[in-house]
């Protein structure tokens, strides 16, 4: 088996990949993550996932390189990481009682052959009706300022959900493991 490389500095993606019990290393790619004019969100996350993987191909020959990127959309517009308490409060107020769509781009690049598998895995969160006190209490406890949508689904953020829908709940955290296993199997990796 070729060694695995996760093209990410995300602790959340690292924790998810650990669930597969496969040895891997991590390296953070340096790419421009700007949105192109008229680029659809699906195209954006697929392009960025592939660019992250390809950015490390030259420095890691003979590896299977995993790239991933995620955006959240609310009312048809992309929302990013809030970075501050105030921005997170505004995002959660805007999302109260609504659907938040998450699109996670995934790429698996074989840097030996150049073969690259790319996909996008959607996931939808239906938010509860949230009042300002509940939102602020949540933000003080979990501080999800580095998370698209302003919540940590793998933590207390789940308390803000009415329901969820999608083919792979791990895509919500940023690395769709079900689809990744499909890609790894097609490269001859035995999981488990």
Automatic annotation (TrEMBL):
The record marks 12, 70, 154 as: Important for substrate specificity. It is found in: Cytoplasm. Its cofactor is a divalent metal cation. GO terms for cellular component: cytoplasm. Its EC number is 3.6.1.-. The keyword Cytoplasm applies. It comes from the Bacteria. Signal peptide: none annotated. The keyword Cytoplasm applies. GO terms for molecular function: nucleoside triphosphate diphosphatase activity. Keywords: Cytoplasm, Hydrolase, Nucleotide metabolism. It catalyses: N(7)-methyl-GTP + H2O = N(7)-methyl-GMP + diphosphate + H(+). Its main location: cytoplasm. One of its GO terms (biological process) is nucleotide metabolic process. The active site is at residue 69. Nucleoside triphosphate pyrophosphatase that hydrolyzes 7-methyl-GTP (m(7)GTP). May have a dual role in cell division arrest and in preventing the incorporation of modified nucleotides into cellular nucleic acids. This is 7-methyl-GTP pyrophosphatase. It comes from Pseudomonas rhodesiae.
């Amino acid at each position: 088996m070729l060694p695995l490389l996760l093209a990410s500095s995300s602790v959340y993606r690292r924790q998810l990949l650990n669930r597969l019990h496969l040895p891997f290393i991590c390296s953070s790619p340096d790419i421009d993550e700007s949105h192109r004019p008229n680029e659809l969100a699906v195209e954006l996350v697929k392009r960025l996932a592939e660019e992250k993987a390809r950015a490390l191909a030259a420095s890691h020959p003979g590896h299977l390189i995993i790239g991933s990127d995620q955006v959240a959309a609310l009312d048809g517009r992309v929302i990013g990481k809030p970075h501050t308490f105030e921005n997170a409060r505004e995002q959660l107020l805007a999302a109260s009682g609504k659907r938040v769509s998450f699109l996670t781009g995934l790429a698996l690049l074989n840097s030996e052959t150049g073969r690259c598998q790319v996909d996008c895995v959607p996931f939808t969160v239906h938010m509860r009706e949230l009042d300002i006190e509940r939102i602020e209490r949540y933000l003080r406890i979990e501080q999800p300022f580095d998370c698209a949508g302003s919540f940590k689904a793998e933590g207390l953020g789940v308390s803000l959900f009415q329901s969820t829908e999608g083919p792979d709940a791990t895509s919500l955290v940023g690395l769709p493991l079900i689809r990744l296993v499909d890609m790894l199997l097609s490269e001859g990796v035995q999981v488990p």
